[in-house]
Amino acid sequence: MSLKQKTISGVVWSFVEAVLLKGLSFVAMLLLARWLGPIDFGLMGMIAVFIGIGSSLVDSGMSSSIIRTKNADDEDFSTVFYMNMIISVIVYSILFFTAPYISSFYGQEVLINIIRIYCLTFIISAFSAVQLAILTKEMRFKRLTLLNIPSTIIGATVGLTLGYNDYGVWSIVAMLLTTQLVISILLWINSTWRPSLNFSKKKLKYHYNFGYKIMLSGLLDSIFMNSYNVLIGKFFPVQTLGYFERAKQFSDYPSVNITRIIRKVTYPMLAQLQDDTPRLSIIYRKLLRITFFIIAPLMLGGAALAKPLFELILGPIWLDAVPFFQILSIAAMLYPIHAFNINVLQVYGRSDLFLKLEIIKKLFLAIGIAIGIQFGVIGLVWSIVFTSFISLLINTHYSSKLIEYSTKRQLTDMFPILLLAGLTYLLMYYSVYLMMDYSNIIQIAFASLIGLTFYLVIHSFFRASPIYALITIIKNRKL
Transmembrane stretches, by residue range (predicted)? Predict the structure, then answer.
């Protein structure tokens, strides 16, 4: 199978995974949200920063190094496997013994057991991280999707069963833990690779020299992005953190999953094109424009539908999360662009620059948090949007030095799409207002139909619109 065929096949199967499997998990979380309420999700939000830090430490960026290494062999795989396992045990042990102090910080004793049980996922995921990296490197996304089906179904079933029977926050813990356990077992069973006794200090140094910068970048991102959870959990009622956490999950779901699909498939593809910069630049530009063409109206349209959407899906108890969701949708709209620019740095092995940018961006984020908190929780949420725009300028500036696609060209390509998406938002928001005396379903259906029709019809008038590039890819199955 050619590289183009592998890429298109990967997009298709990754899309199936995102729609069916991630969608199933998302629906399961929606049901749990209706049954449990903001407090239980607020408790999970309190430990998000520690989960993020632990995940970054466990992977250490070495899985990404395996994917980009052209001639990786058993010695590479075994070395990374043993290091991942050692680090995962160390990280889990640290969190196990510090759990009481974390619990005391928030004044929530139940967090002790939540941390000690949920963080077992570090060891479980490390057990199959190399198998996952190998399948990703080989672009075998169909196999990955098929393996994810039983893990997602079993995890959702366990979580919903416990949630229905009033197990509260433990139903969320059980769902996430079970899903990770099943997929790890399946990856191990269905992989032909097994760790040997080969352990190379030279290989470890090679992968760690690339990976530790990715790891430190991930740590910075986890600490700073989850600092909102820490501040809201510490200084505001736990329900407020629950509202923020659900709003963030809602806003992240479409943008993160669409980005994950394209990033997971294109990272190994672009890694193979790292010596052909002109071709890489052309494909990158096409992917960026198509992705933003999809994600911009999706996020802004969702913000327009927020009130009837939350009331219909989660119930009136979650309406206080609507303002958070509407603001966060703006920031989430830019997530794919951040991810694509960061992808360029990893493809060219510039993990040093990756780390440098994270430090610069986090300085701006710290300033945003310091200013935003002066205006309460809404000010904090708006600071996410402002720092996201600043981060976009930083990311595009440095990635443009590696490919022939400047910040100005990227912004120029994005602006017409953003303008039409903004007009679509206003049209949909006004449509919801006009239909406010009707049921939530009618409001959502009517505004969605009006917005989608307007957006696609206006785009169809411009030959340079990404809609035609998307149609060409669908028809010809090639980039």
Answer: 12-33, 39-58, 79-102, 114-134, 146-164, 170-189, 287-305, 317-337, 363-394, 415-435, 441-462
Q: Are 407 and 396 in contact (CB under 8 A)?
A: yes
**Burial class of residue 73, CB neighbours in 10 A (0-12, 13-18, 19+):** exposed
Contacts of 434 (CB under 8 A, 6+ apart): none
pLDDT of residue 286: 80
**End-to-end Cα spacing for the chain:** 15
| Cα dihedral 89, 91, 96, 102 in deg (nearest 10) | -170
| 17 DSSP assignment | I
SS3 71: coil
Reported as a single tens digit per residue, the pLDDT across 33-85 is 888 878 888 888 888 778 877 777 776 666 667 776 767 777 878 887 888 88
Q: What is the mean pLDDT of residues 405-432?
A: 90
Angstrom distance (rounded) from CA 310 to CA 461: 34
Per DSSP, the three-state class of 43 is: helix
Domain boundaries, the chain: 1-235, 238-479
Residue in 126, 102, 129 with CA at minimum distance from that of residue 113 = 102
Measured distance CA(175)–CA(122) in Å, rounded:
15
Could you please report the per-residue DSSP string of 21-52? IIHHHHHHHHHHHHHH-HHHHHHHHHTHHHHH
